[in-house]
Amino acid sequence: MMLTDVKNNRKPEFEIDEMFINRWSPRSFSEKEIPTDILLSLFEAAHWAPSAFNFQPWRFIIAQTDEERKTFHSFISEFNLAWCKNAPVLSLVISKKTNDGVEFPTHSFDTGAAWGYLALQAYKSGLATHPMTGFDFQKARDVLEIPEDYEIEALIAIGYQDEKEKLPEKLQEREQPNERRALQEFTFNGKFGNK
Predict the structure, then answer these.
(1) Looking at the DSSP assignment, which residues form a beta bridge with residue 58?
(2) Tell me: the pLDDT tens digits for 132-175?
(3) 4 with 25: CB under 8 angstroms?
(4) What are the tens digits of pLDDT across the range 97-138?
(5) Taking the CA atoms of the chain, what radius of gyration do you get in angstroms?
(6) Which residues lie closer than 8 Å to 147 by C-beta, 6 or more apart?
(7) How many angstroms separate the CA atoms of 46 and 61, rounded?
(8) In this structure, what is the dihedral angle of CA atoms 37, 120, 73, 106, given to the nearest 10 degrees?
(9) So what's the pLDDT on residue 5?
(10) Does the keyword Oxidoreductase apply (predicted)?
(11) How far is Cα 53 from Cα 103, in angstroms, rounded to an integer?
(12) Are 159 and 34 in contact (CB under 8 A)?
């Protein structure tokens, strides 16, 4: 269950399902373990994401054990490690760049959709997710032995949200949902720039 009331920070311009407003990316995670069936339901949701030609380029490398998480900690930035070290699960999101030796142009786009499905299922399951790119991509590739035909997309912390007071003091004030741009700032009519 999310511990932050998002109503003061997020007001949609049009009516949408509340999960899109209530899902956000907190940094305060409880060390409470996630039951296997609940955790796997997130990846079950991800694998039903839309995919061009049904290629399904997404892959998730999951760290659940202390040893696996410590391996992941070796390539995470100091800033991110300060808060994500309590998350019971970390998952590196990668995408296969080629299909039968041919570059697959939508591998990142499709993998982003899979991440979105995972994040929404996590919210529906009472879990929090926080994606990050603050880590050493090359070190992650080396440590986890990721082949060159896979793109490293992001790292996700997954777990139960905890009280913001458990974060380092400098992060506590940031522990709230962000606002979003107005629709007119990112939607165009007919061609780029036409609002």
Answers:
(1) 95
(2) 999 999 999 999 999 999 999 999 999 999 999 998 888 888 88
(3) no
(4) 998 888 999 999 999 999 999 999 999 999 999 999 999 999
(5) 18
(6) none
(7) 13
(8) 110
(9) 61
(10) yes
(11) 13
(12) yes
Q: Which two tokens stand for residue 68?
A: 């696996």
pTM surpassing 0.90?
yes
CB 42: neighbour CB atoms within 10 A? Answer: 26
Instruction: Please tell me whether residue 5 adopts helix, strand or coil conformation.
Output: coil
Each residue's pLDDT tens digit, 25-52: 899 999 999 999 999 999 999 999 999 9
- Please provide the DSSP assignment of 121-189 as one string: HHHHTT-EEEEE--B-HHHHHHHHT--TTEEEEEEEEEE-B--GGGS-HHHHTT-S------GGGT--S
Question: Which residue in the block uniquely carries the two structure tokens 């570059």?
Answer: 103
Token pair 């290629």: residue: 55
Tens of pLDDT, residues 64-73: 999 999 999 9
Segments making up each domain of the chain, as ranges? 27-174
Place of tokens 């709230």: 176
